[in-house]
Specification:
218 residues; alpha+beta; 4-stranded parallel β-sheet; 45% strand
């Protein structure tokens, strides 16, 4: 496990713990790192110091890291003997630091990277329903004028009537005259068919939006 791989692991929902092995030149450095990690918000991502000791990074540390999916943090120490080769074979990430705050920044960045992304709705455009048409096989099509933004074929939509959302779903068809189109910008007219919904009325508004994941910064 490496810090870089942690970012992909959150996407797969595999990692909610960040395991560390800390090796340092003196006990004071270990305590400084431990205190800094303890002060980080751990409600969603728990930072576990699996092992901490004074001295160089050894093959035993690598074996323990491999067994516990841990990252080795070295402060003012170096890998001994064939430790680097063993780490490469076991795919264990060894991070070496000379300054404590750099280690703290890296670990905090990994922790933030593990936070579940926020799921947000981004509004894309608004269409006014100015007419309706019955089309064989397609059902009710709303003759619309795009008053704001841009409506795309793959947008999700809300049907709003008198300020109340009465339906949420997907666009079944989006047309300009007789042509299927991918999107229509503000200032243009179009025909919109809503999948699974036929009760569209003149005066309704169709709000387009997309559901996106936004990386957490904290």
């Amino acid at each position: 496990m490496s810090l870089d791989e942690l970012f992909s692991h959150i996407e797969e929902g595999k990692q909610t713990d960040l395991n560390l092995i800390v090796k340092a030149d003196v006990d004071g450095s270990i305590e400084a790192l431990r205190d800094a990690f303890n002060k980080m918000d751990q409600t969603e991502v728990k930072i576990n110091i699996v092992h901490a000791a004074v001295g160089g990074i050894t093959e035993t540390d690598v074996t323990l890291a491999a067994a516990s999916d841990a990252i080795i943090i070295g402060f003012n120490v170096r890998p001994t003997g064939k430790t680097r080769q063993v780490a490469e074979k076991e795919k264990v990430d060894i991070r070496l630091y000379r300054v404590i705050y750099q280690a703290i920044e890296d670990i905090n960045a990994a922790r933030v990277g593990l936070l579940s992304p926020d799921i947000v709705e981004r509004d894309t455009g608004i269409a006014e329903v100015r007419d309706t048409f019955k089309v064989p096989k397609a059902g009710t099509i709303a003759g619309c004028y795009i008053v704001e933004g841009e409506i795309s074929r793959d947008d999700k939509v809300r049907i709003v009537r008198d300020g109340t959302v009465i339906f949420e779903g997907n666009i079944d068809s989006l047309r300009r005259f007789k042509d299927d189109v991918k999107s229509v910008r503000s200032g243009y007219e179009c025909g919109i068919g809503i999948a699974g919904y036929q009760d569209i009325k003149v005066g309704d508004t169709i709000e387009g939006y997309q559901v996106v994941e936004v990386e957490r910064t904290e």
